[in-house]
Design a protein that fits this description.
130 residues, alpha+beta, 4-stranded antiparallel sheet, two-stranded antiparallel sheet, 34% helix
């Protein structure tokens, strides 16, 4: 028996997955790349739950302008982890059908903000060791 709805969902998920892989290869920050970063830094102070006690807040840096932003939910409230939905509109590269951010522009990187300064994940690890 052929189920058209199931087939549509499967194809849509495959297309979205392929699209996200292509964005990652181009260096775009995506939810999948954020998960990969969290796995990579899992046992270090390079993730939110391991450096929060050191005053770090998840955030993003626009390498082109030098501006940084704290991570926020789509409604503007501060997020305790890295989420893309609260990024400034000009930093967004792509959205899904529901309007959620699926990719940031290539110049956007994840990291942390502390004492009015941006830290990459590596810099946060080093700074929290002192």
């Amino acid at each position: 028996m052929y189920n058209e709805q199931l087939q549509t969902v499967t194809i849509t998920q495959d297309v979205q997955r392929d699209r996200e892989r292509a964005q990652r290869l181009r260096g775009a920050l995506t939810q999948m790349s954020l998960r990969d970063e969290n796995r990579l830094y899992a046992q270090t102070r390079g993730i939110s739950q391991n450096n929060r006690d050191y005053g770090f807040r998840p955030g993003y840096l626009n390498r082109s302008t030098g501006e940084y932003q704290l991570s926020r939910f789509s409604d503007g409230t501060l997020a305790p982890i890295h989420v893309l939905d609260g990024l400034p509109e000009s930093w967004i590269a792509d959205r899904d059908a529901e309007g959620h951010v699926t990719a940031a522009r290539r110049e956007i990187v994840s990291g942390f903000v502390r004492d009015n300064a941006f830290f990459t994940r590596e810099e946060a690890i080093k700074a929290s060791a002192h």
